Amino acid sequence: MTTTVKIAFLPLNDAAVLVAARDMGFAEAEGLDLELVRTTSWATLRDRLVFGQVHAAQMLAPLAIAVTLGLSQQPAALAAPYKLNVNGNMLVMATDFAQALDQSVAARLADPLGTAHDFAAAIGLWRRKPIIGVVHRFSSHSMMLRYWLASAGIDPDRDVVLRVLPPSLTVEALRAGEIDGFIAGEPWGSAAVEEGLAETVAIGERIWQRGIEKILAFREAWLEDNAETVDRLLRALARAAVWCDNPANHSALAALLANPRYVDQPAELIGRALSGQIVARSGEAPIAHPDFMLFAREATFFPWRSQALWIYSQLVRWKMVEHSPDNAAKAGAVFRPDIFRRALAESDVAMPGASMKLEGAVDLPLAVGSRRGELTLGPDRFFDGRVFDPEKIDEFLAGFGAPR
Amino acid sequence: MRIVIIDDSGLRATVLEQGLRDAGYDDIHIVPPRGAFVARLERMAPDVVLMDLGSPSRDTLEEMLIVSRALARPIAMFVDQSDEAMIGAAIDAGVSAYVVDGLRKERVKPVLELAVRRFNAFAKMQAELNEARTALSERKIIDRAKSILMNQRNLSEQDAYALLRSGAMNQGKKIVDVAQALITASDLLGGGI
Question: Where do the Response regulatory domain residues begin and end (chain B) (predicted)?
Answer without folding.
Answer: 2-116
